[in-house]
Every structure is written in structure tokens, then in C-alpha cells.
């Protein structure tokens, strides 16, 4: 069952990372006017996922897996889609994970 988690940071801090319950590192970012909250840890080998400098692509810092920020689908066949958390409130930001 999913729980609701209130994040400390806000949309003015975008993009940002925040741990919830020392278990999930949430990465919150904006792309083309849409705010998304994803699991910021790569499913391949736990690298950090973040937007590139031009805000056009999500990338893993370890082995450079690329992820479309719109669809969250990666270029790695084994780890097709990155986990996304539903944002259920914006001020404060509350996600469901
Ligand atoms: S840890 Fe992310 S691609 Fe390997």
C-alpha cells in the first residue's frame, strides 16, 4: 500500500533530491512545464539520476543510461521505465510512494 510523504523542499528549489524514510531518494524536476517526482536512484547499479545541463534528458551519472524526461523510458532494455511517484499536493509537495 502506498503512503503519502511530505517533502521539505518546494518547487522553487527545482530540480532537487530528497530522501524519504532513508529508503527512497526522490528526484523532483521540471521538464516542458511538467513537474515530475521519480526514484532518483538508477535501477542498474544505484547511480544518481538527474537532468542534463540543458534539461532535455535524464541521465544516470554512473554508466550514462539515458531516460526520456517525458515518458521516463530508458535506453536500457533491461530497465525499461523509471519509477514515478504521484504528486498529490504542491504546497507543500506531497507525493505518494
Ligand atoms: S548505475 Fe545507472 S546505468 Fe549503471
Q: Remind me, CATH topology?
A: Rieske Iron-sulfur Protein
Largest sheet report: 6 strands, antiparallel
Please tally the helical runs, counting DSSP H or I stretches of 4 or more residues: 0
The number of E-state strands comes to: 9
CATH class: Mainly Beta
Largest beta sheet: what is the strand line-up? 1-9-8-4-3-2
SSE class: mainly beta
Q: Give the overall shape.
A: globular
What is the CATH superfamily label? Rieske [2Fe-2S] iron-sulphur domain
Q: Helicity range of the residues?
A: under 10%
Distance between the termini: 9 Å
Order of helical and strand elements: EEEEEEEEE
Small molecules bound: FE2/S2 (inorganic) cluster
Strand content: 35-45%
Task: Pick out the low-confidence regions.
Answer: none
**Rg of Cα set:** 13 Å
Overall domain count: 1
Could you report the average pLDDT, rounded to the nearest whole number?
94
CATH architecture descriptor name: 3-layer Sandwich
Set down the secondary structure blueprint.
Layout: E1 4-6, E2 16-20, E3 24-31, E4 34-39, E5 49-51, E6 58-60, E7 66-67, E8 84-90, E9 93-96
Antiparallel strand pairs: 1-9, 2-3, 3-4, 4-8, 5-6, 6-7, 8-9
The site of FE2/S2 (inorganic) cluster has 9 residues, from loops.
Description:
This protein has 97 residues and is mainly beta. The protein has one domain: Rieske [2Fe-2S] iron-sulphur domain (Rieske Iron-sulfur Protein, 3-layer Sandwich), CATH 2.102.10.10. The chain contains no helices and 9 strands. The protein has strands at residues 4-6, 16-20, 24-31, 34-39, 49-51, 58-60, 66-67, 84-90, 93-96. The strands form 2 sheets. The chain has a 6-stranded antiparallel beta sheet with strand order 1-9-8-4-3-2, with no helix packed on it. Strands 5-6-7 form a 3-stranded antiparallel beta sheet, with no helix packed on it. The model has no long low-confidence stretch (mean pLDDT 94). Residues 42, 44-47, 60, 62-63, 65 line the site of FE2/S2 (inorganic) cluster. FE2/S2 (inorganic) cluster binds at residues 42, 44-47, 60, 62-63, 65.
Amino acid at each position: 500500500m502506498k503512503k503519502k510523504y511530505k517533502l521539505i523542499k518546494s518547487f522553487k528549489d527545482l530540480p532537487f533530491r530528497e530522501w524519504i524514510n532513508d529508503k527512497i531518494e526522490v528526484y523532483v524536476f521540471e521538464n516542458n512545464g511538467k513537474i515530475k517526482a521519480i526514484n532518483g536512484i538508477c535501477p542498474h547499479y544505484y547511480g544518481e539520476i538527474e537532468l542534463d545541463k540543458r534539461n532535455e534528458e535524464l541521465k544516470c551519472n554512473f554508466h550514462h543510461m539515458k531516460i526520456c524526461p517525458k515518458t521516463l523510458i530508458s535506453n536500457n532494455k533491461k530497465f525499461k521505465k523509471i519509477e514515478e511517484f504521484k504528486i498529490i499536493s504542491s504546497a507543500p509537495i506531497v507525493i505518494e510512494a
